[in-house]
Amino acid sequence: MDLLNAFVALANFVLIPATAYGAQLALGALGVTLIYGILRFSNFAHGDTMAFGAMVTVLFTWWFQSMGISFGPLPTALLALPFGILGCIGLVLFTDRVVYKFYRAQKAKPVILVIVSMGVMFIMNGLTRFIIGPDDQRFADGERFIVSVRSFKEMTGLSEGLAIRTTQGITVVTAVVVVAALFWFLNRTRTGKSMRAYSDNEDLALLSGINPERVVMVTWIIVATLATIAGVLYGLDKTFKPFVYFQLLLPIFAAAIVGGLGNPLGAIAGGFVIAFSEVTVTYAWKKVLVYAMPERLEPDGLVQLLSTDYKFAVSFVILLIVLIFKPTGLFKGQSV
Amino acid sequence: MSDTLRNSIYFALVAVLIIGTGILQSWNSALFILNMGLISAIMALGVNLQWGFAGLFNVGIMGFVALGGLATVLVSMPPVEGAWSAGGMRILAGLTLGIMSIVSTILVFKRMDAGRKRTIVMLGVLLIGFFAFRAVFDGGVEAVEAINPANAGNIGGLGLPVLLAWPIGGVFAAGAAWIIGKTALGLRSDYLAIATLGIAEIVIAVMKNEDWMARGVKNVIGLPRPVPYEIDLQNSAEFVAKANAYGIDPVTASTLWVKLLYAGLFAVVLLVLFAMAQAALKSPWGRMMRAIRDNEVASEAMGKDVTARHLQIFILGSAICGIAGAMITTLDGQLTPTSYQPLRFTFLVWLMVIVGGSGNNLGAVLGGFVIWFFWVQVEPMGLAFLTLITSGMAEGSAFKAHLLDSAAHMRLLTMGIILLCVLRFSPRGLIPEK
User: Fold this and answer.
1) Distance (Å, whole) CA A11 – CA A147
2) Is residue B386 part of a domain?
3) A42 at the B interface (CB within 8 A)?
4) Choice between B239 and B265, residue whose per-residue pLDDT is larger
5) In a 10 Å sphere around its CB, with 0-12 CB exposed, 13-18 middle and 19+ buried, how is residue B268 labelled?
6) Cα→Cα distances A251→A237, A299, A313, B284, Å
7) Does B430 map to a domain?
């Protein structure tokens, strides 16, 4: 029995990856939840908005790399990020003007807006594939590890190593900063308050002189920013591939619904719930158990509950459970 | 212009397009478009049932279609020798255990009083059930997958006639639809969309990874056919004599004849389903459905059980998609789980229904043909278009090469733009609902 090593293995393979993944999901789910709260529909184009923003960032990163600009030990993508955000904001505001505005004026049913967002999803997906192609793209550079396995072993003298990748560190730090800024904006500024008022009760908000078009525009700008950041972080941490972002849609929606659609705090909690369950259910526990259990109880198999190919099934099952037992989500979201 | 005249003109135009393909390109590709057009029309009928009649938004059509394809393999392939004795029974026992543990969890939930005790008992039953399931199931899977993995490694099918797989494909899809509908219907409309999106991804994941079932990504090829093989036709003296009498080369004639036979089979299915959908639409049941769609609150006040009716029509529509999926796999003669793309099997069908006219069965059928035709033809058209705009650019420039390479992705863009334009400027479609 060796609980210290067991904990290190647990941290290395479960806690750290799940935290990074959870932060990425939380940022994605925040975007979905904001659109739902203000514009009142589930935005199926969100995954591809992330892909588009990340793509612009990737292109700028390559350009900077070709000019020899780098960000020291940090990935160059962080320098390119503001340009990616700007590109994404441009596209999103353009689609709002050309596509969504018409249905808003008509007061169309939410389900129509969902279908429309599917159309937008395919156009954005097509654009992304048209410009950068459907394949994997690598754009991460800079220092790879904050703590590498070897240096950790030397430092602590344990037999089990622990690695923290730079991208994981950046993901968590960025997510904390972004979320803090978002909540400061929503709770303290006049525009943020008007957004919350509009989300709570549209008619009352309009009566008190809030300009709906302005609220909608600010929402789209925030959503594009969040989507680009989430997309770039995910791409840095794993890999950039347009189709992957479409598949992320399911865990992101699951996170938003688990937390309660329309509730920003819930979106963050939901992101971590989904990420941690996905990683714990698909992780092969053998290594941890070998350390943690007395020798004669050591398991023979991998002790993997589900193969990693089924990680989407995990978010789906959680989604079903929440829909059956608590359709409003853990934190009270908007209507059922 | 009367409705009948207008509709006849639309269908005549489709016929002209397909015949034109036959004359300009080849009759084989024309018949291919016709066959897939017939199947697409069936899928569109199913989705029209859900969306047009009841206003239910299903984003998981791909999953139901894939289940139909799976049924084809499980019904029509000959059983793999020794698979059943090696581990087939054990797999079945494992699956039964899994289902039993879920059922008993549900029973516990229903019978016991709410509280912490119930939660603990439920979790306990689920956990014990899960480990029992894995213990029995995994051994069976290993045993089956070990049998001749290069060619088989799966359980095989029942060896029944392939036509039987079509209704069974519908049953498979209906089963999946029941699970989804039971949980997500009765909540907000968006939730059904998200739940169906999820089930589609999971069905595909299961089909890719459960090799014992249908060989996963190793694909199943050589499915039995309901029509004769080309090579047999070419060897039959009678057929060759007939082909020569018509002045067609026997090889071409055999491929055309096989495709025509398929077209006949598909047309029969389409006509039967169309007649049924029309009858349903005109019946009191159809009127009730549309009443529910247009005003749920009022229908509920009239004593209609909205959720139950929604569940009913959701299952029916999904079953039709399952039948169509089985037909596609039969036509292809193989099951390739990787070929199931959401764009091709979910989004395209939506486009068919919306362009054709949601709520109108004839419109759905028309949309099926029209959109399928453009789906096939957009790629060459996109390439031609890009060749045209890049013709002024310098030879060998990277930008030009990139544009030409990207022609394949024009489909996504074009289809998205068509959907948005139709929704905005002609939301009722080509043949509007009466």
Assistant:
1) 13
2) yes
3) yes
4) B265
5) exposed
6) 17, 31, 9, 41
7) no
Q: Which residues of B touch A324 (CB under 8 A)?
A: 183
The amino acid at residue B345 is F
Between CA B253 and CA A241 the distance in angstroms is 45
Domain of B64, CATH number, reads: 1.10.3470
A137: nearest Cα among A239, A248, A24: A239
Region A53-76: what's the mean pLDDT?
A: 90
Domain ranges of chain A: 19-247
What are the backbone dihedrals phi and psi of residue B161, each rounded to the nearest 5 degrees, phi first? -60, 140
Of B36, B29, B34, B72, whose CA–CA distance to B255 is shortest? Answer: B29
Q: What is the mean pLDDT of residues A90-98?
A: 95
Residue B148 in any domain: the answer is no
- For the whole model, what pTM was predicted? 0.89
Using a CB-CB cut-off of 8 Å, the residues of chain B touching A110 are: 188-190
Task: State ipTM.
Answer: 0.85
In whole angstroms, how far apart are CA A169 and each of A144, A231, A257, B65?
Answer: 11, 16, 27, 42
Q: Is A62 on the interface with B (CB under 8 A)?
A: no
CA distance B317 to B136: 35
Which pLDDT tens digit goes with each residue over B94-149?
Answer: 999 999 999 998 898 888 888 888 889 988 998 899 888 988 888 888 888 888 77
Task: Give me the pLDDT at residue B259, please.
Answer: 93
- Give how many domains chain B has, as a whole number: 1
Q: What is the mean pLDDT of residues B196-216?
A: 87
